[in-house]
Predict the structure.
Amino acid sequence: MDEANKESQAQAHSKHNTGAADLEKVTDFVEEKEISGDNLDNAITAILDKRKLEAEQKAELERRLASVKVKKEDVELICHEFEITKPKAERILKENSGDLRAALTALVNA
Amino acid sequence: MPSSNPLPSHEANLFKKILKCYEQKQYRKALQHVKEILKKFPDHGETLSMKGLILNYTNKKSEAFECAQRGLKNDVKSHVCWHVYGLLQRSDRKYDEAIKCYRNALKLDPANLQILRDLSLLQIQIRDLEGFRDTRYQLLQLRPTQRVSWIGYAMSYHLLKDHSIANNILEEFNKTQPKTIDFEMSELLLYQNKIYQEAKLFEKSIKHLDDNKNFILDKLCLLEKKAFALTNLNKNEEAAKIYEQLIERNPDNLIYYQNLEASLNLNSIDEKLNFYAKLSEKYPRSDIPRKTPLLFLSDSKQFSSYVEEYLKRSFRKGITPLFKEIKCLYSEETKWKIIESLVVGYATCLETDNKFSNDSSQEEPPTCLLWVYYFLAQHFDYLKQYAKALVFINKAINHTPTLVELYIVKGKIYKHCGKVYDAVVCLDEAQSLDTADRFVNYKCSKYMLRASMIKEAEEIAAKFTRETSHPAEYLKEMQCMWYEIEAANAYRRIGKFGDALKKCHQVERHFQEFIEDQFDFHSYCMRKMTLSSYVDMLRLEDRIKSHPFFYKASKIAIEIYLRLNDNPLKEMGAELDTNTENLSPAELKKLKNKQKKQQLKAQNEKEKQQQLEQKRKELNKQKNKEDSDLEQPIEEELLPEKLERPENPLEECNRFLKPIEEFAAQYPETHYLAFQVYYRKNKPLLMMKALKKIKKNSNTVDYLAKFHYCACKFLLKYEKEKCSYNTDVLGVIQNELKHLELFGQSVEKLNENFLSVNQNNFESLIVGSKILYDLNPNENQQKALDLFKNISKENLSINLITAIDAFRSVAENHYFGKCSKEEVENIRTKLKEFFTEATIFKTPEEQANDLINCVQGLSINSFVSSVNNDITDQMTSVNIR
């Protein structure tokens, strides 16, 4: 009796698990196929230039933000009042040129 | 492979085999090889790490970590050890840690493809899009000969919304590749086109579609995309042709009809009527062309004749969801009035001689009358004329007593009247008429939860859950969230806050899981080229917590945490002490004895529970051993007793509050909840932010009232605390108050004004009286209560849900402070005038009787006795169920 019960349970179990096998395949390891192309290299260089330009623009913005000096206690106040992380608080303060009141207003209206 | 500790060639070969076996998921075999190496070199770092990795997949978490740690210690110069350690951190969902490990590994082996790939997967998972782009760039440089390298890099720009570079990469790549006719190529082309359209390059998109139409296998998608692009370019004629094709393919897609109508530029009603008449002739089986004219017809005569035809046809055919189909017309009073007079007419004629009208020659089938009754019941229910609705639903049941749908509607009508137990009886009847219908089963279970009959609800739900596990446990496993939310509400109603919170946290965890579940698809979708759907999935996951289920669970959880913050539960076992002020010594002694007994009983029960818990844990362990495919980290168990005694309830809110502030910002209720949390935390700027959002999103009376409430609370707090605020904070607040025209206002005046303007509105009255009380709790309690009591049916309309909420708040003493029993009783009888039928406004004895009657009539009977005992206990302590 017990045996039969177990068996039917096992059967029920397997019935509920159809689809699990398919899901298993999602995590299979498959090595990518290699493709060939005559001018893959040319294609890369075309893109490289674009990337350079863009990186420069971004660096410029970061440089500008980095030059802004902020007070530590201002950052802490923002963290405390708005429950946000330090980097975020610092960023917002810098975006507002270090003006605490402007930063607070920006956050209230965010 | 560079390692500080190279193996001799035999073992090195074995190590390679380990890697191979691991990739092919042959974990047992891999472990055998590991054993062999470790026999000779027990401290070999990389082998130990691999052992850890494999053990992790066979679900031996702690051992796995130990191995990986030891491996790393023995060989910190090995990228394998760092990589493995990162993988373990990842499977533990510690993504930041994992990224650090990968970075260390890359320092040792900067060009390792596998590590870069794993890194990119993590970056996309946590949406570090710029990091993802940089990693994909490295991968492309290292492996330009793999398709995925190109697509991954392009996608990184697409996700960063830099469409032109994304396009560029794909274009450059496609130039190098010959076109093939297969699924992958087709998906790639459609993905490229998706980017064109998102960049609004519609000309380019059309050309791209035309050039590649032979290579795009998903013809439906091709047509839809082309039509969309043409519409955006105002090429309406061409678009119309495609929409015609699309309707031909699927005449039941509403969007096609709407777009076709728009692109044909039909202006007059006659043109539109003509248009839909033709389509109706062409697609006689489609409901859309028949129904749409009902929406735009404004002339009542014309509407009447169209709707008459529509209704008659539907009644003859017995279209069950007819009311749902045309409910959208009820926003216009003239329309529902026409419908009402027509259908009531049908009912009288059909009753006498089976015809829709006296002058008709056609005799109708007997079911027609049934569907007419069914429709009218829903019609009057929708218009809140419950008595009439009941008359018609009873007629329908007399006509055909075996139709399941009728009992569902009857239950719904009772629910709307607030008769929760009668509603349960109806749904139970429906359920027992067709026990194999899952939908009806779920409805019944839900109605039971609404009546706080949790055990009964479980019993009903158990008919569709796996026999081997507890229904609630199974429903959790199945992520059945409607159940968890309704159960949370039910538990909250009966004061079991811990159990309610447990359900809310379960829902939150489901969402966490949804987010985790993405992980495997990052590599899978790129490989399978299902790029458009993949990007759609990423976007869906970004906003997954905007789902109503998450919102509902969050609202319940936050409200409970607020309640627990204002009025924390006593320590375990101490909850029995009631107020002993006005008891005689003899009574006190009696009470104490009783309490002791109860405590003993509680303790016994607790012990029993602990034993059970222990057993369950052991069982779980066993199960885990057997179950080899459980990659998830073991989560902390949710214990109701712990949940309802949080150390800091307001901090606990964050898990729910922060996501809804981000994803459900459109609901004023979100900010109302946020305000209440920040008010208690004394965060003036966050309060101000919430206040402004409520104002911005409020247009109903209900939320204008809530704005008033928050504004007053803010001003009161501000006056009290402003000395302690930082000057900049103060400056910002004063500025914002001026914008809101609240600066320098007196709360008393504001409130007086508010109350006099909004006399006829219950929501405003509740809020106004609450502020009145808060202004001076000692003196104003009576005044506030009087405001509440003096409402009358002549000049005030109330909705049931608001009334119930308000009544509960007062009765549970957290609205006007502690109120005397008489006062609560007065309010109860007052509200009963408005809702004569509602269970909640009946006396405790009446409620107990209703419940007993209800339970005795149910198809399941296992809880009758336990409920009977419970009832008397419960009803005497709290008069709300």
Observations:
- The interface with chain B takes residues 9, 12, 16, 20, 24, 26-30, 32-41, 43-44, 46-47, 50-51, 54, 77, 81-83, 100-101, 104-105, 107-110 of chain A (CB under 8 Å).
- The mean pLDDT of chain A is 77.
- Residues 37-67 of chain A form one domain.
